[in-house]
Amino acid sequence: GNDFVVLGVESSCDDTAAAVINSDGTILGECRVSQDQLTEEWGGVVPHVARDAHADAIQHVIESSLRDASMLPSDLDAIGVTMGPGLEVCLRVGYRAARALALKHDTEFVAINHLEAHVLVSRATKTAENIQFPFLTLLVSGGHCQLLMAYDVAQYEVLGGTLDDALGEAYDKTARLLGLQVGGGGGPALEKLARKGNPKAIPFPVPMHRRPDCNFSFAGLKTSVRVAIDKLGGDEQVQTDQSLMADIAASFQETAVRHLEQRVTRAMQLCDDRGTGVNTLVVSGGVAANAVIRTRLESVCATQGWSCSIPPMNLCTDNGVMVAWAAVERLRRGIADDHTNLDVRARWP
Ligand code: KG4
Ligand code: ZN
């Protein structure tokens, strides 16, 4: 048949990851090394620290995903690697490793945009037979928060983006404000704490709820949390009271989710007004691993008569599968790149 095998390599932020997949989306081998521990120690992603950690892990993730797949580099039909957006020094680690492999084995090479990989991975999963272009997509990660119309591979229209922080960033900053141990990431830590709290305990204002467009803003919400903590007696006082902490976390999350719901609903109306006939929402990016966000957006879709697609949690946060899949999608359309005259791109909308 016309099946082919692709290696995906990812090193744009604080995960070093690789995966080998078949062009039908079957995952043959996968490996991911996270730098959560380092991010915790340094209180954030420090470029040269992250670069060194990628350099230490890159061969391992590539070799072990190949081993998982019982394959040799020479068995690969193509290699896809994230070339941006992200930290340049980090991106280069993945790019160089992928380029060296492609050169050595004369393998087809595909430069991948990390954001497009997040968006497209939904189409790789088995349940995705019905995810056809065009679709509406909400991309929520540590660096991005956007509503997009996806018309085809490489054809997107930005309906709205964040005016300040990305949603994952807001989770991370708020987790730090609350003094949480963020070893496994600020988002998951905050989500876990919020489970024990009352989401209605503190009525934070929903950002821009009187401005019916598709843009986002999370900086004000973060400030509201700061102000609330101060009113409640300050960091030390608040942090000794677990149920108060949980209430703050739950209230933050509730407000963030309501903001998402309003913007997604707005974007759906826009699709209807334009008579696009689009009625599928794809949610992607690291924050799409959040169980509350998943359920709430699913029910927005149900209410509007839309279908909702969210990748399994392990494909939401950064991974090699999404990069390999984005390469599959490009190769199917005859898009490949010349690996000799490329460079990574810190910004790549
Ligand atoms: O897509 P991703 O892995 O990396 C980027 O491309 O940015 O997203 C990472 C972001 C982090 O900000 C992390 O805190 C957030 O996604 N995140 C979550 C959850 N899991 C990851 N935020 C809220 N709830 C979660 N369960
Ligand atoms: Zn990402």
Write the layout of secondary structure elements.
Layout: E1 5-10, E2 15-22, E3 27-34, H1 36-42, H2 47-68, E4 78-84, H3 88-105, E5 108-113, H4 114-120, E6 135-140, E7 145-152, E8 155-161, H5 167-177, H6 186-194, H7 219-231, H8 234-239, H9 242-273, E9 280-284, H10 291-304, E10 307-309, H11 313-316, H12 320-332
Parallel strand pairs: 1-4, 4-5, 6-9, 9-10
Antiparallel strand pairs: 1-2, 2-3, 6-7, 7-8
Helix pairs in contact: 2-3, 4-12, 5-6, 5-7, 5-9, 6-9, 7-9, 9-10
Bound molecules: 5'-O-[(R)-(carboxyoxy)(hydroxy)phosphoryl]adenosine and zinc ion.
Structural class by sheet pairing and helices: alpha/beta
Q: Would you tell me the overall average pLDDT?
A: 95
For the record, what is the CATH homologous superfamily label of the largest domain? ATPase, nucleotide binding domain
Assigned CATH architecture of the largest domain: 2-Layer Sandwich
How many β strands by DSSP? Answer: 10
Q: How do the helices and strands follow one another from N- to C-terminus?
A: EEEHHEHEHEEEHHHHHEHEHH
As a percent range, the share of strand residues is: 15-25%
- In the CATH scheme, what's the topology name of the largest domain? Nucleotidyltransferase, domain 5
User: What's the arrangement of strands in the largest beta sheet?
Assistant: 3-2-1-4-5
Low-confidence stretches: none
Shape: globular
> Number of helical runs?
12
What is the radius of gyration computed over CA atoms, rounded to a whole number of angstroms? 20 Å
* CATH class assignment of the largest domain: Alpha Beta
Count of domain modules: 2
Instruction: Name the bound molecules.
Output: 5'-O-[(R)-(carboxyoxy)(hydroxy)phosphoryl]adenosine, zinc ion
Largest sheet: 5 strands, mixed
Cofactor: a divalent metal cation
Subunit structure: Homodimer.
Family: Belongs to the KAE1 / TsaD family.
Subcellular location: Mitochondrion
